[in-house]
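Before relying on records like the one below, remember that each one covers exactly one chain. Contacts with other chains, cofactors or solvent are not represented anywhere in the record.
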Amino acid sequence: MRAALAGRRTEPRIAFASVDLLHRVCAPKRLAILRAMAGAGPLPVREVARRVERDVKAVHRDMAALVRAGLLDRGEGGRMSFPYDGVRMEVDLMRAA
């Protein structure tokens, strides 16, 4: 935040309240969706399901969770986009107080 307020370019960040929540939101099948969408621009859910070789309804549920988490954007005509260049995950494990 300090860097952004100082006018320096910063990378967008999404933080999770716990490692468990990170694992729930970024489950392997959901990461496969992000991988399939990276650099592809807006895509319909059916195309994403085809790319990851999964059921459309299941992919739609996972994509809705990714939208709620801020990892996907919902666009016109039901198309979804992954608006980032990539995903980098960092986990800090600290001793309980």
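The beta strands are 73-74, 80-81.
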